UniProtKB/TrEMBL annotation:
<dbReference type="GO" id="GO:0005886">
    <property type="term" value="C:plasma membrane"/>
</dbReference>
<comment type="function">
    <text>Choline transporter.</text>
</comment>
<dbReference type="GO" id="GO:0022857">
    <property type="term" value="F:transmembrane transporter activity"/>
</dbReference>
<keyword id="KW-0472">Membrane</keyword>
<feature type="transmembrane region" description="Helical">
    <location>
        <begin position="370"/>
        <end position="391"/>
    </location>
</feature>
<feature type="transmembrane region" description="Helical">
    <location>
        <begin position="39"/>
        <end position="60"/>
    </location>
</feature>
<dbReference type="InterPro" id="IPR007603">
    <property type="entry name" value="Choline_transptr-like"/>
</dbReference>
<keyword id="KW-1133">Transmembrane helix</keyword>
<keyword id="KW-0325">Glycoprotein</keyword>
<feature type="transmembrane region" description="Helical">
    <location>
        <begin position="275"/>
        <end position="297"/>
    </location>
</feature>
<comment type="similarity">
    <text>Belongs to the CTL (choline transporter-like) family.</text>
</comment>
<feature type="transmembrane region" description="Helical">
    <location>
        <begin position="247"/>
        <end position="268"/>
    </location>
</feature>
<keyword id="KW-0812">Transmembrane</keyword>
<feature type="transmembrane region" description="Helical">
    <location>
        <begin position="330"/>
        <end position="350"/>
    </location>
</feature>
<protein>
    <recommendedName>
        <fullName>Choline transporter-like protein</fullName>
    </recommendedName>
</protein>
<feature type="transmembrane region" description="Helical">
    <location>
        <begin position="456"/>
        <end position="475"/>
    </location>
</feature>
<dbReference type="Pfam" id="PF04515">
    <property type="entry name" value="Choline_transpo"/>
</dbReference>
Length: 485
């Protein structure tokens, strides 16, 4: 290599003679009275990092990223949580077992909330049968636990109605459990079973023949769940959860690939400087157009690959809308505007692009003399990558932090309790994640911390590179540091 990183690291690329002023220069090394000159800011910056660590520790202690995607069951467990009671690994989909409670939660001015409707975690959304009546029963506990364990319960499609006593069957026919009829078809929408307000005639007929209570069939049962799934807070949680689930893509496309391409770009500046301005502008516009077309595909304006909130296989005649679809369309429109501005701007600055070629020629000379410039950016890049891994992990836990507490509902939520072997009407409310005001402050501080740390690493890198380039550019033909000042 022709030399290290100039004045910041140590020497000029070219040798220089010793100056009479030994305090200013010695063997090409810039000497000066270097020391920390902003003690107050240094203390503030150290305090910031301590606060970031404490803030993140709170998130790691209180948060659970599973809460961002999956719902809560009637026992307060997070669906899919292997540490739940019982073990709910692979049981990731939330299903509301009592359709009348879902209907009541959607009635205007009703005091009953969907969060208090009895729900359970399943592997897939149940589907009604036309030949018989399917059931979804509570987790096996108490006397039932001695006959059926969790594995048998899952393999029997969550149905042990035939094993119930007369009292339990009578309670089930009043929609008080422990078993509930599957009357409405449902589909997996963002890990919750969205009811389709078209009851199965066969199942409904069997239910009525058995003496079951009346079941509301209004469209409200569909809208109540749809409104909950598409609430602003639920959508925000899903966006944050998507970041956590796409960590592999982020590492490859947001980390390894950009680093590789940036090194290629620097090498191309070194050897193909005359064409690099045009190549850069052309590649940038191609990328903008490609991203815009990708959003057109996902918005459904081109082809048949539009995003859908429904997860897994489903009836093609079932369509469920979601906020994310509207967001994709809005981003597609925004990218169209950006694409137009990019192309028009590229045409308008053709003369300046020619000027940029001259600047890049100087940059190519610098890279040729100070070749460490190609390697040095890896250092701040690595530090920033380590910070981002820590930051994203802490962010997921902060966004999911809070306490799971049972709601204080005053509605009729009576349900059969298998442990006490009777119907209970107290302690039957649902569970919700309760957030305190300081969690919002912690999240905003965490976001600000990302911005500050990112700018610090960028400024650190820019300072070193600027000092190296300046020491070469202004003193490349001089023998004295005095002459470059």
């Amino acid at each position: 290599m022709a030399g290290p990183l100039g004045a910041i690291i140590g020497r000029y690329p070219k040798s220089s003679t010793a100056s009479n002023d030994g305090d200013t220069q010695m063997r090409g090394i810039i000497k000066g009275n270097r020391k920390c000159r902003d003690i107050v800011f240094l203390i503030l910056f150290i305090a910031f990092w301590v606060a970031m660590i404490v803030n993140s520790s709170f998130g790691f202690n209180q948060g659970n990223p599973l809460r961002l995607n999956y719902g809560l069951d009637y026992k307060g467990n997070v669906c899919g949580n292997k540490h739940g009671n019982p073990d709910l690994r692979e049981l990731e989909i939330k299903y509301w077992v009592n359709p009348n409670q879902v209907y009541e939660s959607g009635v205007k001015n009703s005091q009953f909330k969907l969060a208090d409707a009895r729900s359970i975690c399943l592997m897939e959304c149940p589907f009604p049968s036309e030949d018989s009546l399917n059931w979804v029963c509570d987790y096996p506990e108490g006397e039932i636990r001695g006959k059926i364990n969790m594995d048998v319960w899952i393999n029997s499609n969550y149905d042990y109605y035939e094993s119930l006593s007369v009292e339990m069957r009578n309670s089930s026919l009043h929609l008080q459990g422990p078993c509930y009829p599957v009357i409405f078809p449902s589909v997996n929408v963002h890990w919750s079973c969205q009811f389709i307000a078209r009851p199965s005639n066969g199942s409904l007929h069997h239910w009525q023949e058995m003496g079951g209570v009346s079941i509301n069939e209004d469209i409200i049962i569909d809208k109540a769940i749809h409104k909950s799934i598409n609430s602003r807070s639920a959508v925000l949680k899903r966006y944050v959860a998507d970041v956590g689930k796409s960590w592999g893509v982020l590492i490859v496309c947001g980390g390894i690939l950009p680093l590789f391409l940036s090194v290629i770009w620097l090498l191309m500046i070194r050897y193909f400087v005359a064409a690099m301005t045009w190549i850069t502008v052309a590649v940038f516009n191609v990328l903008i157009i490609s991203v815009t077309m990708f959003y057109y595909l996902k918005a459904g304006w081109i082809g048949n690959d539009a995003i859908t909130p429904i997860i897994g296989e489903h009836d093609p005649y079932i369509h469920v809308s979601g906020r994310e679809q509207n967001h994709i369309k809005a981003v597609a429109v925004f990218m169209t505007i950006i694409m137009a501005i990019s192309i028009l701007s590229s045409l308008a600055i053709i003369r300046r692009i020619l000027m940029a070629t001259s600047v890049l020629k100087v940059a190519a000379k610098v890279i040729g003399e100070v070749q460490a410039l190609i390697i040095f950016p890896i250092i701040p890049y690595t530090l920033l990558a380590i910070f981002y891994m820590f930051w994203f992990s802490a962010a997921l836990h902060l966004f999911s932090s809070g306490q799971i507490l049972q709601n204080d509902c005053k509605s009729n939520c009576c349900a059969y309790d298998l442990k006490s072997d009777k119907v209970i009407c107290d302690r039957c409310c649902g569970y919700s994640i309760h957030y305190t005001p300081h969690i919002a402050i912690a999240i905003f501080f965490h976001l600000f911390g990302c911005y500050w740390a990112t700018q610090f690493f960028i400024a650190f890198s820019a300072t070193v590179i600027a000092g190296s380039v300046a020491s070469y550019y202004w003193a490349r033909d001089q023998t004295s540091v005095r002459s470059c000042t």
